[in-house]
């Protein structure tokens, strides 16, 4: 079992930045891929970014629309994954969830089905 807790959400103006953090407990952190998903009102939850586990070389993958603006980074010593978000726009407003999984194949790393453990979510609002 893995327990996840997100932090760092809030209100930010367009063009601003936020840093989200996801801290895990309960298992060997380096064995888990940790991903961020987001869900805006009335929309389906979508993949944002993932920091792969040691099994997949700790590589990072992103949704195309966030590449260059968002950066995901693991801090294994603190069982934490950060999501640095820059140049935010209202379209980035959503509840952001972190999720962890350890058994997916690489082609499924962007799929929600690959992640059995989820945090409660943190709200990000981009508005004037």
The averaged pLDDT comes out at 95
User: Number of helical segments?
Assistant: 0
Globally, the shape reads globular
Kindly state the percentage of residues in helix.
Answer: under 10%
Radius of gyration equals: 14 Å
The description of the largest β-sheet is: 7 strands, mixed
Ends distance: 40 Å
Low-pLDDT windows of residues: none
What's the number of extended β-strand segments?
Answer: 11
Describe this structure in words.
This protein has 128 residues and is mainly β. It is 0% helix and 46% strand. It contains no helices and 11 strands. The strands form 2 sheets. Strands 2, 4, 5, 6, 9, 10 and 11 form a 7-stranded mixed sheet that branches. It has a 4-stranded antiparallel sheet with strand order 1-3-8-7, with no helix packed on it. Strand 7 and strand 8 form a beta hairpin. The protein is globular, with a radius of gyration of 14 Å. It starts with a strand and ends with a strand.
Features:
128 residues; four-stranded antiparallel β-sheet; single chain; seven-stranded mixed β-sheet
Q: Quick recap of the structure?
A:
With 128 residues, the protein is mainly beta. It is built from no helices and 11 strands.
């Amino acid at each position: 079992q893995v327990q996840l807790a997100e932090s760092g959400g809030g209100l930010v103006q367009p063009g601003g930045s936020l840093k989200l953090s996801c801290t895990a407990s309960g298992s060997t952190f380096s064995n888990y891929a940790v991903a961020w998903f987001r869900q805006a009102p009335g929309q389906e939850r979508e993949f944002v970014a993932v920091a792969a586990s040691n099994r997949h070389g700790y590589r990072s993958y992103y949704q195309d629309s966030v590449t260059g603006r968002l950066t995901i980074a693991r801090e294994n010593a603190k069982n934490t994954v950060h999501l640095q978000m820059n140049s935010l726009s209202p379209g980035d407003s959503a509840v952001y969830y972190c999720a962890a999984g350890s058994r997916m194949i690489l082609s499924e790393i962007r799929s929600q089905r690959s992640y059995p453990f989820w945090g409660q979510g943190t709200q990000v609002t981009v508005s004037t």
